[in-house]
Amino acid sequence: MDGKSLTAAEYAQLQAKLQTRPAPPTLNSQVREIVFLLQLRKAIRTFYLFAYLREQGVGCGGCGV
Hints:
With 65 residues, this protein is mainly alpha-helical. The chain has a domain at 28-56. Helices cover 60% and strands 0% of the residues. It contains two helices and no strands. It has helices at 8-19, 29-55. The longest helix has 27 residues, at 29-55.
């Protein structure tokens, strides 16, 4: 894992160790829902910012927006 060369036996041992690693823990469904809602909130706020800027006449120069 530090960039040095491995022998075949060391490589096999490393592969076995990596395969027996436990799966990463899953997030609580409530935490997943909160993360989703925060991402949704961020997307909505971004959309409203662009809609507000467009309403105010702040475009991107000659891009036709």
